Amino acid sequence: YGFSVAVDANTLVVGRRGNRDIFIHDRHKSDCTQTGNSCSDRGSYSADNWGLVQTLSWPGSRQNNNYFGNVWPETYCSSVTAYHSQATPTVLPFEWGCSVALKDTILVVGAYKSKRTNANTGAAFAYKRNQNGDFRYEGTLSSSTTAHSHCGWDVATDGTYVISGCYGKTDVAGKVEFYERNPVDGSSTSSPWAFVASRTATTCSNPPS
After folding, report:
1. CA–CA gap between residue 165 and residue 72 (Å, rounded)
2. Contacts of 16 (CB under 8 A, 6+ apart)
3. How many Cβ atoms are within 10 Å of 118's Cβ, its own excluded?
4. In this structure, are residues 98 and 112 in contact, taking their beta carbons and an 8 Å threshold?
């Protein structure tokens, strides 16, 4: 707990490296306690407190539901599972939670040892907070198929764009990957996130004096 952290306005995200839960805290809220399929105390005021209002569980064993719409199971406080829309997963997440980024309603979780075709290609996972206050999975951000790219080692977002840092290895050049979120109508079962470009380190041929 505490390996990765991010804060934006009144929301705090705390990660645990190694395929563990992601903890969502809201300021001035009390901890949410699950009772059956409801959370009656969600939103109750608690001065100077960062209450736990949701957890996202490691997605490695849950990859069979759609992105949007009513087919997504309702989620409550600490029993939330981060479902993925991949019945036959193209990306197997590992070290999920090594990095987190938060902006407004968008949450990004890095998993630098995820496997796509080859070992340790890495990936990032995007979530969006809905009107009920729950973060729900929107897409897997992974374009690299090169082993040991380690994408998702660090992540950043401004709510529309995501940058995933890929630190590479001795024989694999480091790079950053850019993704963009496209508008959705709320009923699509396709991820709104699209790969835009990647960039490797360059040297300025005429640096300013």
Report:
1. 30
2. 1, 2, 3, 22, 23, 97
3. 12
4. yes
**pLDDT at residue 100, as a whole number:** 95
| Encoded amino acid at 196, one letter | V
What is the spatial distance between Cα 152 and Cα 168, in angstroms, rounded to a whole number?
11
List the one residue out of 103, 93, 150 whose CA is nearest residue 125. Answer: 93
Q: Residue 116's Cα: distance from chain center in Å?
A: 17
Phi, psi of 60 (to 5 degrees): -60, -30
How far apart are the C-alpha atoms of 9 and 154, rounded to whole Å? 21
Instruction: Report the side by side order of strands in the sheet with 4-8.
Output: 4-8, 11-15, 22-29, 45-56
The 10s digit of each residue's pLDDT in 49-60 is: 888 887 777 665
First and final C-alpha spacing in the chain: 45
Rounded to whole angstroms, how far apart are CA atoms 48 and 29?
8
C-alpha pair distances (Å), 149 with each of 23, 134, 152, 155: 27, 31, 9, 14
